[in-house]
Structure formats: C-alpha cells, structure tokens
C-alpha cells in the first residue's frame, strides 16, 4: 500500500480545524471528544471545535486518508463502546509536516519584513 | 436530548448514522459542564448554529459529489440521456405552453391597479340576454349606486386617420374622461382626458403601437395635430405598451362628447360600462344594490326599462365559456402527456437500474447505505428532469405563437403571453416533482438490499418483480394515450361537424375590404350614394368580377345592430319585443355572396328615401312572424321606422357556425334616418370574381383612391378566412391535442416495445428450456403476443372508461358529437391493439431465434 502516496502539497493550505486535528493525533490515538479537549487546552481555550465541524472534518479526513479509525481499544475499564478512536496515517503526518513547513516559511518571510513582534 | 437528536436529523443520514451517537455523547458531556442557565442557553445557541451550518455544508458536499458522479454516468450513456431528456422535455414543454396560455387568460390579474375590483356593467334584458347600455341608463347608474368608487363608459368605432402617409383606417374607443381613472392607468407620455376634453372634443390619445408604427415613437408627439375623419385633433397622451383596453385592436382613444352623454333615450343602447368597486364591497353586495336600483328605475321609466336589470360581472371574466373549456381541455391533455412522459422516464430509469445492477451490488458490498444510493439516484433523475425542463421551456417558447388563437380577443390583454418568471417557476417545480417522484421509486426498487442480496443467485427473480412494475407503467402510458387519442378524436369529429355547417352564403372566391366612410364628410346621403355608385360601377367592370356590393356589417365578422321588431297590428316596440339583426346593403349583395333569394326581390337603387321603406327578411324571420303566410307586402316596425317586406332570402349564420343567430333584416342604404351615425353606413365591400381575389386588390385600391384620395382601404380579407376564423380556436386546439395524442401514442409504443424486449431477454433461459423441451416457435410467439395483449388490455380498458368520462366533461365542446361516439372509440381501441402487436413483433422474432444451447449455458 505504501507504494506511492499522493503529493502532500496538493492538500495545502489545510483548513485550521484539519491541522489542529492532525496535531492532536500526532502522538496518540484519540476519540472525538478527546480531540476537541486537546485542541481547546493547547490553544488555551481560544479554539473550541464544535461537534459539527469536528466530525465533518473527521469524515473528510477519513475520505482523504489523512487519518483512519484505530482498531486498538483502550483498557476495557476506560473504554466507552460508543466512541471511535482515530489514528494519523503516514500521509496525514506528511501533510501536517508540509503544512508546518509552509507556515514556518510564511513566518520567516514576515519576520524578514519586520512584521513579527519580539523576534528572538 | 430529544431536542438534540431532532436537530441532528438535519444532517445527511449517512453522516448522522456514522457520527450521531458520538455527537450526542459529546453534547451531553458539554451539557454537564454547563452550570448556569446562561451557559446553557449559549451552548444551545452555539449548537444550533453549528449543526445548521454543517448540515448545509454536508448536504452541499454530497450534492456536489453526486452531481459529479451523475454527470459522468449520464455522459457514459448518451443514448439513454438524450432519450430521457427529450421525453421529459416534451412533457414539461407541453405543460409549460398550456399553462402559460391558461395562466394568461384564466388566472393572471388584468394589468390594472387592484384589478379584482373592476367590473363590467351591462343591461340584462327581460329574456336574460346581456346587452350594452344606453347613455341615459349609464347616467342613472352612475348617480344612483354608492357601491362603486367610479364608473367609466366607452364604445368602439372605426376612424380614418389622414395626413400620416397612406390614409389609415383605425379602431378607436370613444371614452368618458372617467374611464382611465377608473382603470387606474397612467399614460406613458402626456395626460389622459379631462372634463374639458369632453366639452370641446378635440383631444386624442394614441396607443403605444400606433405611436411606434405611424410616428416612429416621436418624442415630440404631444401637442401634434392630426385629422381623424376630417376632424382636427390634438395628441394629448400616449398609453403604455401593455394597455389594450377595451381590446387589443384599439389604436386611439377620443373623448366622449357632452352631446352624446346627455342623450335621454333609454333604449338607445350602444355604450359599454365598467366600474371600480369601493374597497371592501363584494360583488354580491354590488349586485344586490344594482338590482334594487333597477327595480326603482323600472318603476320610473316603465315604457323603456320594464324588466331590464343590471348585470355586474368581473372584468376578468369577460370571455366565452367556450374559451375556458378549450383551455381547460388543453391543460388536461398536457397533464396527460406529462403523466405519460413521467411513466416513460420511470421506465427508462428502471431499465437502466437493471443494467447497473452489478455496480449497485458492489457499492452495497462496500458499505453504501440504501439511503445514500437512493439519494444518488434521485440526484441523477433530478438532473435529467431539470435538463428536460430547460428543453421544455425552449419547446414552450417556440410553440407559444401557435397557441395565441386560443386567447380570446374580448380580454384587454396582449396578443400572446410572454415566458416570464412565473412560467419558469412552473416549469421548474414541475421538473423537480417529476425528477424526485419518478426517480425515487425506481431508485428505491433497484436498491432494495434484499434484492441485492439475492442478486447473485440470478437476475431472474429481480427481473420478474421489476418487470411487473414496468408493466404497470406501460399500462398507464397506454391508458393515458387512449384518453388523449379519444379526446382528440371526439374534438376532431366536432370540428368537422362545425365546419360542415352551412354558413348560408358561398365564401369561396369572395374578398372583403373595408372603406369606412367618415362623418361628417359623408353625412349627406347623396354624397355616400355617389361614392358607392362610382366604386361599384368600376369594380363590377373589372375583368373576372361577377358581383360586388356594400353592406354595413359582414356576417361572422361584425357584431351589433340587433334591433327590436314589432309586427303591424301587434303593438309597439318595447323591451320585450323580439329582436332581429339589421344590415344596410346596396343592391346586388345577395348575388355577390350567393345568398339564395327565395321570394320577391332584392333591394334596389330605386328604393329611395321618398319611396316606401323596404326590407328583405330571412326565412327564419318569416317563420317566426308569419308562419305559413305570404310575407311579401307585410309591414313591421324595426327599431323606430316602419318597413314593408319586399323579399325573402336564405338565413345566414351571422353569429358564427356554432351559434344560433337572430333572424336577419336587410335594408336599403338609402332609407336611413337623416342623423344616422356612421355605424349605419355600408362600409364592407364584397367582391366575387373568377380570378384570384388577391390579384384584384391593387386595382380596387386605385379605384378608391381615384374617387376619394383621402379614403383608406383596410381589413382586406378573403371571405373564406372570415369563415375559418370562427373555428380557428377550435382547430388550433384540435391540432395541439392531436399532436399531444400522437406524441403520447409514440411514447406508449416505445414503452411497450421496450418492456417486451426486456422481458424476452430476461426470459431467454426459460424460452430456451421450453424450446429444448420441444416447444414450437409458434407457441413462443403466441406466449409473447399474449403477454402484449394482456398489457394492451390492462391499459385500453380503463383508458376507454376514463375517455368516456373526459368526453362527458367536455360535452359542451362536442357540438352534438356523443361522448361515447362508437366510431372514435373503436378506431382508437383497434389502433392501440395494432400498435401493441407491432411493438411485440421484433421481440417475438428474437425469442424464436433463441438457441436453446446458448441460452442454457448463458448464465446459471
């Protein structure tokens, strides 16, 4: 299957929600609610994904094969039957990396023009 | 949580099934976090916004996907796509065209402010007839009825316009100044009439089309001076293009003079009256009030108004019930065509669904839900239907001019409807319904997961069930086309009957043209007599001309001149007198139109003013007044003057072929009251010739020009056209219905053929087995023909019943043809059976050629 992945650059620029979901899934599998909480925490409460946006993004990302459903379930004690866990795919990782690179590049250009405050 | 689940139903089902549970769980957790009422409210507000926005987006995504898929799928099967679009287009087109005409005539309000408050006021004679009004009675009504906000009156007459190039004969409406405010219309340029114009009478208002055609839309038209019938007039206004009151031929409006308005004679009826109801007053209240007023007036003027009442009818409804019936029949026929087109479309979709069976199996195996498959199919059929709808609008636009003859001339509306937003919306809604209703069913059928499950066991079971569905559709098509064929047949039969009615004169080789002599120029009788004599002498001398004469109103083309009759010794003329149609003629009229002279003589040039005033009456007049007596020499009073009968002629269908006409009385043009209006002057010249009538026209024109250079020649028409015009609405309707029926027939035939072909191919194995077991080709053919006949029977029999019911409802249009006309019914039934047999020939032959060995090996 790993024969030839689509070019990650064709997915760019990513919608903000998609990028956040990829970041949330970068280190571990999560279910929908956990993704939402993670995004909220990481942004200090600034971004709270609504249920509709979250699941529509998930649906599209599944279609695009950026993520997939994970078969591994947590400890039965912690498991909620209704929940599905999502895992980032290699393509998803590549796309997230490409997006991060694109943004870093933008920031570099902005800095060169003195547009970024407190440049370290 | 119930509310939340309800909210989730906005989302596409596939999405909801996939994520609904999790979203609900997430929502309940967030709800637990919400502590105060305020946070709870905020949560709900956010949630609703979120779901609605995402639902719209999700639906849009699916639609885009489905459309993309549908376009690709349709492009892969261009034959199917073209057929489906064409079939739908014909169905929608027929309906859009029929609807736009029906809407224009029956539904759409007239182009005036609050047009539903406008009514037409008429005199109702003691025998229930509707008549025009006398100026005096109009005045009584105007002063005596508080239910109306305002009232206006008018009468129409021809007028000659001189000085703008070739002299022109135009239709003018002479109106009271109150008419325009009553209608609530504003002029496009200038002003409408004032009380002052009624006093000095020198003003004129032009129609938009005259302004454009005769004056090239000259912006400096206001204040310009014209000569009409020799009178100088000043243009004070131009009306907007959509103003056609009281009918669309009217080119100019002139003010009603004070002298006419103060006429005291309550029997001198020639005005038409309209009024605007006060706001809040109903039609019934107005009628009740007018009835009371009429009773009061009848007491006041018993001589003139005894038994006369007022009829109050909506201006909107001023057209014949026949026009309405013709249009409704057309709409019903169009609906039939649409039904057939839809059945055909559903059939095509079902057949297509079968060919895509494998694809469905694969998609179901990949986890596509039934809802998703159905939705995909509906998108596809909707796309087809909308494309068909677009084609249909095109068809409607092209075919509308053919239908304008169905628009009654008595309504103050344009000659033909325009295809506007209303029509587009109608076509759009119809297409959508077609696409959804007739796409959903095949889609639901073909995505039956149960069927899909057993699909691999062999297509036979699936094919069987679907064939039944298709058989129902085909039977429906046959049924609807039987109804259409029979209706068209009955109406055609009626048309032939109407056209077979003897008009009472011979129209072939006669041309009619009008030279309307204007007042006051021709007010003197000797001057008129000289004109007629000079014109007729020269015209009769033209090579090929065998007869020429003048009459004051052509049969079938002119209205009015219906006067009361009192036979000598049977009392005076009163409101209850019988009526007859009056026409002033020159000598030779009967010969020119070949109206048979039964007794006595024609009027002659010797019937001068100072001679006894003579009359030539029709046979029905004699039959009514002097049955079994010699009428020659009998005397009667006609309107105001005493007449003596000198001749009897055959009856003429003055009011058209379908209507009974009053008896006719022909008078010498020289024996007319001194102050008669130009209405009594003979103005229609009829010329019979052995050469082509149209070749005469230039010479006749030059003759008239030589005798009076200012006299226009207008309304040149062969007499045959005048006769065919009275059946024009009918023949247009029959032609349209015939086209609908033919179309329906073809669609039904293709349906039968398609179904049987399909049935043969899906039964190949069975046929193979039968043949292998020794069945003869003949038996196989018989089996298929039997199936076809069953199908035909299932459609034809209910079709015959429905056709009979349809015939009953349009009996008023059938002119005596019975709605169970045996010839028509038998012909259509036979036609349908023959069509069925022909339709099954090819499939039957194919069945006979089935090679049992191949059929058995084919698919097990």
Your description of this structure?
The complex is a heterodimer of chains A (120) and B (860). Chain A is built from 4 helices and 3 strands; from the N terminus they run αβααββα. Chain A is mainly alpha-helical and 120 residues long. Chain A has a single domain, classed as Winged helix-like DNA-binding domain superfamily/Winged helix DNA-binding domain (Arc Repressor Mutant, subunit A, Orthogonal Bundle). In chain A, strands 1-3-2 form a 3-stranded antiparallel β-sheet. In chain A, helix 1 (16-25) crosses helix 2. The longest helix of chain A is centred in the last third of the chain and has 23 residues, at 90-112. The mean pLDDT of chain A is 85. Chain B is of the alpha+beta class. Chain B folds into 5 domains: 2-76, no CATH class; 83-114 and 320-457, no CATH class; 126-307, no CATH class; 472-500 and 722-860; 517-711, no CATH class. Chain B contains 27 helices and 22 strands. In chain B, the strands form 3 sheets. Chain B has a 6-stranded mixed beta barrel. In chain B, strands 14-15-20-17-19-18 form a 6-stranded mixed barrel. A 4-stranded antiparallel β-sheet of chain B has the order 13-21-12-22. In chain B, helix 17 packs antiparallel against helix 23 (728-762). Chain B is globular and about 105 Å long. Chain B starts with a helix and ends with a helix. Residues 453-461 of chain B have low confidence and may be disordered. Classes of the chains: A mainly alpha (120), B alpha+beta (860). Chain A binds chain B through residues 31-33, 36, 50-53, 55-56, 58-60, 80, 82-84, and chain B through 11, 15, 18-19, 21-23, 25-27, 29, 46-47, 50-51, 53-55, 57-58, 61.
**Mean of pLDDT of chain A:** 85
Fraction of residues of chain A in helices?
Answer: 40-55%
Mean pLDDT of chain B: 87
SS content category of chain B: alpha+beta
Architecture (CATH level 2) name of chain A: Orthogonal Bundle
- The CATH superfamily of chain A is known as Winged helix-like DNA-binding domain superfamily/Winged helix DNA-binding domain
Oligomer: heterodimer
Tell me the strand order in the biggest sheet of chain B: 3-4-9-6-8-7
The biggest sheet of chain A amounts to: 3 strands, antiparallel
The biggest chain-chain interface is: A-B, 17 and 21 residues
Number of strands of chain B: 22
Total beta-strand segments of chain A = 3
Which descriptor suits the 3D outline of chain A? globular
The number of helical segments of chain A is 4
List the uncertain runs of chain A.
none
């Amino acid at each position: 299957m790993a024969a030839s992945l689509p070019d990650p650059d064709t997915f760019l620029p990513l919608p903000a929600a998609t990028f956040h979901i990829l970041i949330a899934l970068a280190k571990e599998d999560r279910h929908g609610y956990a993704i939402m909480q993670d995004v909220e925490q990481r942004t200090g409460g600034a971004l709270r994904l609504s249920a509709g946006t979250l699941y529509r993004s998930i649906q599209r990302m599944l279609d695009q094969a950026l993520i997939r459903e994970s078969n591994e379930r947590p400890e039965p004690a912690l498991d909620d039957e209704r929940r599905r866990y999502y895992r980032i795919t290699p393509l998803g990782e590549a796309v997230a990396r490409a997006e991060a690179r694109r943004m870093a590049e933008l920031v570099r250009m902005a800095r060169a023009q003195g547009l970024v405050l407190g440049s370290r | 949580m119930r509310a939340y689940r309800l909210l989730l139903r906005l989302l596409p089902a596939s999405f909801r099934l996939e994520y609904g549970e999790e979203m609900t769980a997430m929502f309940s957790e967030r709800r637990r976090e919400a502590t105060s009422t305020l946070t709870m409210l905020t949560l709900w507000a956010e949630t609703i916004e979120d779901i609605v926005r995402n639902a719209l987006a999700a639906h849009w995504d699916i639609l885009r996907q489905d459309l993309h898929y549908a376009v690709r799928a349709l492009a892969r099967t261009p034959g199917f796509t073209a057929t489906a679009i064409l079939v739908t287009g014909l169905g929608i087109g027929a309906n859009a065209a029929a609807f736009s005409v029906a809407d224009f005539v029956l539904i759409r309000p007239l182009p005036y402010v609050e047009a539903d408050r406008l009514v037409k006021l008429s005199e109702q004679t003691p025998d229930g007839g509707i008549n025009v009004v006398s100026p005096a009675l109009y005045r009584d009504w105007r002063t005596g009825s508080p239910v109306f906000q305002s009232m206006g009156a008018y009468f129409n007459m021809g007028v000659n316009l001189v000085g703008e190039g070739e002299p022109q004969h135009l239709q003018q409406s002479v109106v009271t100044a109150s008419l325009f405010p009553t209608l609530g219309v504003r002029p496009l340029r200038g002003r409408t009439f004032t009380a002052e114009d009624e006093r000095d009478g020198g003003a004129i208002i032009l129609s938009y089309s005259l302004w454009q055609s005769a004056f090239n839309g000259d912006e400096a038209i206001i204040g310009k001076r014209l000569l009409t019938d020799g009178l100088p007039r000043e243009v004070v206004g131009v009306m907007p293009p959509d103003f056609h009151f009281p009918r669309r031929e009217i080119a100019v409006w002139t003010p009603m003079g004070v002298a006419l308005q103060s006429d005291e004679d309550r029997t001198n009826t020639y005005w038409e009256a309209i009024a605007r109801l006060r706001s809040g007053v109903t039609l019934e209240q107005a009628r009740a009030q007018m009835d009371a007023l009429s009773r009061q007036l009848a007491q006041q003027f018993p001589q003139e108004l005894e038994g006369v009442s007022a009829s109050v009818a909506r201006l909107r409804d001023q057209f014949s019930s026949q026009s309405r019936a013709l249009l409704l029949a057309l709409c019903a026929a169009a609906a039939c065509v649409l039904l057939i087109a839809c059945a055909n479309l559903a059939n095509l979709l079902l057949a297509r669904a079968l060919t895509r069976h494998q694809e469905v199996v694969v998609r179901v195996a990949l986890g596509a839900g039934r809802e998703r498959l159905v939705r995909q199919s509906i998108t596809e059929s909707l796309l087809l239907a909308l494309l068909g709808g677009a084609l249909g609008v095109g068809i409607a636009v092209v075919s509308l001019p053919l239908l304008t003859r169905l628009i009654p001339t008595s309504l103050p509306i344009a000659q033909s409807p325009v295809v506007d937003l209303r029509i587009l919306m109608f076509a759009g809604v119809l297409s959508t319904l077609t696409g959804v209703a007739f796409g959903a069913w095949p889609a639901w059928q073909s995505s039956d997961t149960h069927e899909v499950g057993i699909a691999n066991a062999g297509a036979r079971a699936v094919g069987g069930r679907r064939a039944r569905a298709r058989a129902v559709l085909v039977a429906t098509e046959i049924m609807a086309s039987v109804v259409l064929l029979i209706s068209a047949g009955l109406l055609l039969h009626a048309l032939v009957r109407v056209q077979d009615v003897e008009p009472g004169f011979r129209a072939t080789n006669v041309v009619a043209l009008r030279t309307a002599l204007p007042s006051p120029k021709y007010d003197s009788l000797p001057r008129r007599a000289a004109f007629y004599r000079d014109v007729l002498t020269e015209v009769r001398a033209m090579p090929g001309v065998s007869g020429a004469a003048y009459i004051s109103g052509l049969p079938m083309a002119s209205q009015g001149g219906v006067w009361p009759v009192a036979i000598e010794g049977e009392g005076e003329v009163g409101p209850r007198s019988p009526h007859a149609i009056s026409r002033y003629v020159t000598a030779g009229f009967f010969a020119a139109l070949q109206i048979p002279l039964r007794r006595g003589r024609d009027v002659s040039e010797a019937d001068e003013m100072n001679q006894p005033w003579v009359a030539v009456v029709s046979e029905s007049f004699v039959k009514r007044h002097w049955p079994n007596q010699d009428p020659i020499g009998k005397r009667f009073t006609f309107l105001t003057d005493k007449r003596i009968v000198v001749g009897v002629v055959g009856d003429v269908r003055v009011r058209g072929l379908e209507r009974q006409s009053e008896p006719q009385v022909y008078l010498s043009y020289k024996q007319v009251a001194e102050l008669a209006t130009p209405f009594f002057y003979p103005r229609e010249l009829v010329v019979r010739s052995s050469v082509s009538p149209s070749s005469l026209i230039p010479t006749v024109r030059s003759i008239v020009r030589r005798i009076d250079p200012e006299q226009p020649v207008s309304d040149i028409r062969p007499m045959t056209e005048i006769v065919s015009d009275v059946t024009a609405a009918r023949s247009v309707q029959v032609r349209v219905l015939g086209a609908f029926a033919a179309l329906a027939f073809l669609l039904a035939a293709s349906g039968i053929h398609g179904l049987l072909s399909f049935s043969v191919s899906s039964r190949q194995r069975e046929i193979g087995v039968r043949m292998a077991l020794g069945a003869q080709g003949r038996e196989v053919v018989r089996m298929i023909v039997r199936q076809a006949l069953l199908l035909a029977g299932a459609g034809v029999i209910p079709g015959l019943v429905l056709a009979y019911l349809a015939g009953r409802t349009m009996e008023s249009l059938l002119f005596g043809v019975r709605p169970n006309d045996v010839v028509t019914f038998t012909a259509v039934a036979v036609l349908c059976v023959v069509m069925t047999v022909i339709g099954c020939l090819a499939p039957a032959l194919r069945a006979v050629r089935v090679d049992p060995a191949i059929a058995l090996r084919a698919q097990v």
